[in-house]
Specification:
The protein has twelve helices and 18 strands. The radius of gyration is 20 Å and the shape is globular. Helix 5 crosses helix 11 and helix 6 packs parallel to helix 7. The chain folds into two domains: 177 residues, Quinone Oxidoreductase, Chain A, domain 1 (Alpha-Beta Complex), CATH 3.90.180.10; 133 residues, 3-Layer(aba) Sandwich (Rossmann fold). With 342 residues, it is of the alpha/beta class. Helices cover 29% and strands 26% of the residues. Strands 3, 5, 6, 9, 10, 17 and 18 form a seven-stranded mixed sheet that branches. Strands 13-12-11-14-15-16 form a six-stranded parallel sheet, sandwiched between helices. Strands 2-1-4 form a three-stranded antiparallel sheet, with no helix packed on it.
Length: 342
């Protein structure tokens, strides 16, 4: 099969021939139709410090996908060949207290598809049946291929009750934009999304009914005045990993405000904890999706009117992957979807 492989400890990815994965009694083999290119994949492509610490070369990468089951392990009873599916990209152990309590997303033995084990940027991928998510007919392969990042957005946005609340989102990447759409869908009042990338802010305005703000050109206080906000934002969703964005968020929340942090800083940075203490702010880290409640909620919201399709800005054949990755690392796209059926 064809696969995108991190075969060298250097910048880039390589399209190579690889064997079709063998699968065990509790696995399924999926023929991949579409894959989404993630920011994590961009880190691996660039071979930055995080990737060098994390990825064992060679590795087939990619973890956002939709496809069709072509083979089942002998113990798999709840799925069928020919079924359209996506899948949870975090493969968990079953020995920890968290897993045995049903809190699978907190399992310390978690391995990432396309990070710690072979991934989905290939014609076939093997995953545990436990991780497989059947796709309803009204969720097509394009949407199926971006359910993983949508799940990040949903998990983050639904951490706190947003009904009637004013929400600040820092970072207008695809996940931040989708979080804005989710916040609108569930009843937030004012939703402001910030970035310094004009292209991403323009896309945010096209995808969701939210207020984009370029913080290199406009002060958040003036935006709050324009929206007739008198105190501050009730909830902050930090999606950028940028230290300056976190500082700005802390400075513009109400007393007792709440922050959900999905963005990952590239390196440690100082925090003025006295502000967080004296203003009684709550900060919660978010990683991945709640298994499998987040999957239920995001599919239900898509079926009840949540619109995120326009966050996909480019469709490319898998052979043109370099074009997609270069756009990604330059911040010149939303979601890029690679087609593995052509």
């Amino acid at each position: 099969m064809k696969a995108l492989v991190k075969s060298q400890a250097a910048r880039g990815l390589w399209l190579e021939d690889a064997p079709v994965p063998e699968f065990g009694p509790e696995d399924v083999l999926i023929k991949v139709h579409k894959t989404g290119v993630c920011g994590t994949d961009g880190h691996i492509y660039k071979w930055d410090e995080w990737a060098q610490r994390t990825i064992k070369v060679p590795m087939i990468i990619g973890h956002e996908y939709a496809g069709e089951i072509v083979a089942l392990g002998e113990r798999v009873r709840t799925l069928r060949v020919g079924q359209r599916v996506s899948g949870e990209g975090h493969v968990v152990g079953m020995r920890s207290r968290a897993s045995r309590s049903g809190h699978y997303h907190l399992d310390p033995e978690t391995q990432g598809v396309g990070v710690n084990r072979p991934g989905a940027f290939a014609e076939f991928v093997r995953v545990p049946a436990f991780n497989v998510i059947p796709l309803p007919d009204d969720i097509d392969d394009d949407l199926g291929a971006i359910l993983d990042p949508l799940g990040n957005a949903v998990h983050t946005a639904l951490t706190y009750n947003l009904v009637g609340e004013d929400v600040l989102i820092t970072g207008a990447g695809p996940i931040g934009i989708m979080a804005g759409a989710v916040a609108r869908h569930v009843g937030a009042r004012h939703i402001v999304i910030t970035d310094i990338n004009a292209h991403r802010l323009q896309l945010a305005a096209q995808v969701a009914d939210i207020t984009p703000v370029n913080t290199s050109e406009e002060d958040l206080k003036s935006v709050m005045g324009r929206l007739k906000m008198t105190e501050g934002f009730d909830v902050g969703l930090e999606m950028s990993g940028a230290p300056a964005a976190f500082v700005q968020m802390v400075d513009h929340l109400v007393m007792g405000g709440r922050i959900a942090m999905l963005g990952i800083p590239t390196q440690p940075f100082p925090v003025d904890w006295s502000k967080i203490v004296f203003r009684m702010l709550t900060v919660k880290g978010i990683y991945g999706r709640e298994m499998f409640e987040t999957w239920h909620k995001m599919i239900a919201m898509l079926q009840s009117g949540l619109q995120v399709r326009n966050v996909i800005t480019h469709h490319l054949p898998y052979s043109d992957y370099l074009t997609g990755f270069e756009m990604l690392v330059k911040g010149e796209c939303g979601k890029v979807v690679l087609d593995w059926t052509v």
